[in-house]
Specification:
The chain has 112 residues and is mainly alpha-helical. It contains 5 helices and no strands. It has one domain. The N and C termini lie close together (8 Å).
């Protein structure tokens, strides 16, 4: 992202550094916000799951439990990968080599 801004707006080295700082701070703020609201999301999710379980018969509940376990495992794997993406991911070299961003079409050469 920094590289895209740098080239598109012909940023000076100082502007590039300052942009990186703004993006780093924004990433920290988003992370803090996520941590602050996560307990409420979990509360709502648990209430939803209890409601769904009340609808299902015993066999369906067992399958639902498997589905939840599979989804939770997949989410943990993704979350662990996301934890590795810190504010430093805005560094041009890391964006270029980051498979997550390349898959999402957010590598250094794509449009924002």
């Amino acid at each position: 992202m920094v590289e895209k801004f740098r080239t598109r707006f012909n940023l000076s080295p100082e502007q590039t550094q300052r942009l990186g700082s703004v993006l780093d701070e924004t990433q920290r703020e988003f992370s803090q916000l996520h941590l602050a609201v996560k307990p409420r999301f979990e509360e709502i999710r648990q209430r939803m799951r209890l409601g769904i379980r009340q609808i299902l018969n015993e066999e369906q509940k067992r399958e639902y439990d498997v589905m939840i376990r599979d989804a939770t495992t997949s989410k943990q794997i993704v979350s662990q990968g996301e934890l590795q993406h810190t504010a430093a991911e805005y560094d041009h070299d890391r964006i270029q080599s980051c498979p997550k961003h390349q898959q999402e079409g957010r590598g250094g050469d794509s449009e924002t």
